[in-house]
Write a sequence for this structure.
């Protein structure tokens, strides 16, 4: 007897005709998933079930012999549905994972429920209006997590340092000028006589900082190994030839982006990273606004940081920056110019990545 059995309701007595595609929209929650099922241009059923993959598998088996298309939002529940569908061979199951920001909202909408969201996803899927995000493999996702965790731990270390400085400043202990760096501040701190209560608080924060620093170093060593091993070594080597790109930035960006085949066109990578301007044009009027700021913000930040380094070292990029910023650049013009440099750098990274992948392919 199967563990997961879905009971039929009165509204689900009909069956899809042979050849009809069944569309299932899922609104995922912590304790329940809400399903909306459509075929033949009509909503057939909406119901909720516990948030377990087995219930979805039982639902798919109910429509054996039909192609089943599933859609859910890209959220904090991972890609378990997509990976199960890739390995499922008994019938055709296609999964679309959509970013929530790309789903249109009806103007004036005042009611939002899980059932409404699931029905909207199923309708958009049936109409063909949804585009899936890239789903990484298990190996790619695990490797990417190393880079993300390293950044989180580094942020935790810096936060502990800031908390120590702020605490002592609030109690009237002003550090000298030579204690600007953390190493200098730590030397000054060791010589500082503190009350017992304050020593206990500072000691706790220093323990947090020390543990975070140790974890950060372990993760950095792991990232270094990944940058020097397959399949990343060749791309990292080519990228680090560019000014402003070090091995750490290269492996972080590479792990986040995953595969170069995602970016078929020359400008697709900067567009994916939100480095292209927004536009609202009609007729002869061309109106461009701020950059889109879509895509992974951490990669966009890496590119902006690299761009500031590159304009100091690369003559071509410095000329591009000066041309856009103008002779008397304001803060706003500098921001526009550095985004343009980051846009150019993104295209350079894609070109080198694609060239490396082509060279690595075996010749017939």
């Amino acid at each position: 007897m199967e563990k997961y059995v879905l009971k039929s309701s009165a509204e689900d007595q009909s069956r899809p005709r042979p050849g009809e595609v069944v569309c299932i929209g899922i609104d995922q929650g912590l304790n329940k998933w809400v399903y909306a099922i459509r075929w033949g241009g009509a909503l057939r059923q909406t119901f909720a079930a516990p948030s377990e993959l087995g219930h979805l598998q039982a639902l798919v088996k109910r429509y054996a012999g039909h192609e089943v298309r599933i859609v859910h939002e890209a959220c904090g529940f991972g890609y378990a549905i997509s990976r199960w569908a890739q390995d499922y061979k008994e019938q055709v199951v296609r999964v679309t994972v959509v970013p929530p920001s790309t789903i249109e909202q009806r103007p004036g909408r005042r009611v939002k429920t899980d059932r409404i969201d699931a029905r909207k996803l199923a309708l958009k899927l049936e109409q063909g209006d949804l585009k899936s995000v890239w789903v990484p493999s298990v190996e790619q996702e695990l490797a990417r997590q190393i880079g993300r965790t390293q950044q989180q731990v580094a942020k935790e270390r810096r936060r502990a340092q800031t908390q120590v400085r702020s605490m002592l400043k609030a109690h009237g202990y002003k550090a000298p000028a030579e204690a600007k760096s953390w190493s200098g501040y730590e030397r000054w701190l060791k010589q500082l006589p503190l009350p017992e209560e304050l020593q206990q608080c500072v000691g706790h924060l220093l323990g947090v900082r020390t543990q975070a620093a140790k974890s950060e170093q372990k993760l950095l060593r792991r990232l270094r190994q990944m940058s020097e091993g397959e399949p990343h070594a060749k791309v990292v080597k080519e990228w680090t030839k560019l000014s402003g790109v070090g091995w750490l930035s290269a492996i972080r960006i590479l792990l986040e982006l995953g595969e170069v085949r995602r970016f078929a066109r020359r400008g697709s990578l900067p567009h994916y990273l939100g480095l292209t301007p927004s536009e609202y044009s009609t007729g002869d009027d061309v109106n461009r606004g701020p950059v889109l700021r879509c895509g992974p913000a951490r990669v966009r930040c890496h590119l902006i940081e690299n761009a500031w380094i590159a304009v100091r070292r690369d003559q071509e990029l410095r000329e591009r920056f000066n041309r856009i910023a103008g002779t008397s650049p304001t803060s706003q013009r500098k921001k526009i110019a550095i985004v343009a440099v980051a846009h150019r750098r993104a295209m350079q990274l894609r070109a080198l990545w694609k060239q490396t992948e082509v060279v690595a392919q075996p010749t017939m």
In short: The mean pLDDT is 91. The longest strand covers residues 42-50. The longest helix spans residues 138-170. The two ends are 52 Å apart (CA to CA).
